[in-house]
Amino acid sequence: TVPLVSLLLMSCFRIDLTFPMDNGWNGLENYLEMFRDTRFWFSIRLTVIYTAITVVLQVILGLALAMAFFRGFRGQGLMRVSVLLPMILAPVVVGLAWRTLILTPEYGILDYLVILLGFGSKPWLVEPTWALISVIIIHTWQWTPFAFLVFLASLNAMPQEPLEAALLDT
Length: 170
Hints:
Radius of gyration: 24 Å
Distance between the termini: 55 Å
Strand order of the largest sheet: 1-2
Order of helices and strands: HEEHHHHHHH
Helix content: over 70%
Number of helices: 8
CATH superfamily of the largest domain: MetI-like
Structural class: mainly alpha
CATH class of the largest domain: Mainly Alpha
CATH topology of the largest domain: MetI-like fold
CATH architecture of the largest domain: Orthogonal Bundle
Number of domains: 2
């Protein structure tokens, strides 16, 4: 609690690094300035869009994967490892792999596929809209395995009788 209190207290001071002697109590002016700034509201909007899309995609894909694995199929062990691999990799490795192998405009896999489909090369990490789409894809790819594990564990923990009854009803 002490760091939180000191952080809140520090946020009420005017701090100017170019004139360190001119610092002083500012009250809530920093917060008022933040709420008046359009960049703050733009970043809030982007964060809500990013969070909503990634959560929805991860839940849908994780549930679909869990249902497929719950039913069982040949080669399930190897597939489980390949599904869980993105979550195990370090974020730095994931970022570098996507940036150099997949999203590079000249020789990236995704750009090659988009050009093959008849669309032009896309500035995946340059234009803000494409950068947001790219980050959503990468985040969904990396963290869908977590939703998959949660749903698969829940399905395995369920009693079998309701599932068998549901299968008989269909």
